[in-house]
Structure formats: structure tokens, C-alpha cells
Amino acid sequence: AQSVTQLDSQVPVFEEAPVELRCNYSSSVSVYLFWYVQYPNQGLQLLLKYLSGSTLVESINGFEAEFNKSQTSFHLRKPSVHISDTAEYFCAVSDSRNDYKLSFGAGTTVTVRA
Amino acid sequence: GAGVSQSPSNKVTEKGKDVELRCDPISGHTALYWYRQSLGQGLEFLIYFQGNSAPDKSGLPSDRFSAERTGGSVSTLTIQRTQQEDSAVYLCASTGSTPLYGYTFGSGTRLTVV
Predict the structure, then answer these.
(1) Which residues between 51 and 90 in chain B have a beta carbon less than 8 angstroms from any beta carbon of chain A?
(2) Which end of chain B is more exposed for a tag (fewer CB within 10 A), N or C?
(3) Which of A49, A100, A105 sits opposite B42 (nearest CB)?
(4) pLDDT in tens, A33-53
(5) Which residues from chain B sit within 8 angstroms of residue A57, using beta carbons?
(6) Eight-class DSSP state of B81
(7) Burial class (CB in 10 A: 0-12, 13-18, 19+), A60
(8) Separation between Cα atoms, residue B96 and residue B114, nearest integer Å
């Protein structure tokens, strides 16, 4: 079975500071990895994903995540956050053995302060 | 429609009553998923529909929970004899024939059992 661990439940950060959200997964087969973002009072939106190829993936709003197979990690980073990045972030894993169902971590709440 | 639509957006019900939650997926999406998001927890998989195949009900927490998908489109999640622990946000998502492109989530139904 696959599982996802997000190591930080709350991450407070000042505006324009960098942020890193940690995600580790466990799976016995090749996986596909995702980060979703949930802004206050909204549904989940796909932020970025790793399917294959380059281990560094980027989103259009400046986030990036790196797939590290040896460490079974998919940490999310942004070099400089904005107030508008305040949201809850979910790491998720999927594989073909489970019909591509997503297994989610517990989420990390990022609060950006001025 | 342009996105996944869920109704109602909020539902308050008395303990012991039955509730029905509706999900209208993106037109043409073959796969439909129900997840539950409880306060302070991640997303818990409930049930998965793929085309005309038998649904994967492995995530349903008890026999009080059931779901159906009519005509390969709209889905209804029914909770019978609701309990306070059923209070959560119920999220629906749909994907096309290539689920790795990412799920599209609805905004959810916030269920409160009093």
C-alpha cells in the first residue's frame, strides 16, 4: 500500500521569505507524485506533478518540487512567497496498481505574514 | 459544465437523518472519485467509479455510506442515519481517460451533523 507523510502541519512564513514543505511517500512500485493547493473556502487545485523524466518540476506561480527516489521524497519549495500563497498544501501519490487513486498526506497549512 | 459541480455547498442535518450529496463531473470525464476531508486531517478516499465498471467501494467507512453514478455522469453519495463523526467536507473529483493529467475537484459539500 502507498502512503504519504507531510512532516509539517503548520508553516508560518514572512512575505518574500523562502518556504519548503516536506513530503515523504512509501510505495513498492513506481509512483506518480502531486502537489495540490487549497485556498481558503475553495476546492483543491493541482499545483504541479511528477510523472516521469526530469526530477525537478515547476508550477506557473513559482513553486517547484524535486522527486528524490532514494529518499522517497517530493518536497515543495518556493524561493519567495507572497501573501496570496496562504493556503493548505497537500502532497499526493498515485500508482497504476491502484487505478491511479490518489493517496493524500494530512496537509500543510502555510500562513504568509507581511 | 466547465468544472465539477457539487451540491449542496453546505448541509446541516440532525443526527440519525439521511443525506444525499450530489456531484456533477466534467462532461466526458470517465472517472469519478469521492473523498472526505475531516478537520485537521488529509483527504480520505471513499469510492471510485470508472466508466461502466463496478465501483471500487474499498474506502467507504461503513455500510451507512453508499454511492451511485447514473448514466456514467452524475453521482450521488448517500449517508444513512448520520452520526456526528460524519461531519466533514465531502469532495468529488473527476478525470478523463488519462487520470495522471490530474483530478479536477469540486468545491465540496460541508456536512455538519448536529
Answers:
(1) 56
(2) N
(3) A105
(4) 999 999 988 889 999 999 888
(5) none
(6) S
(7) exposed
(8) 37
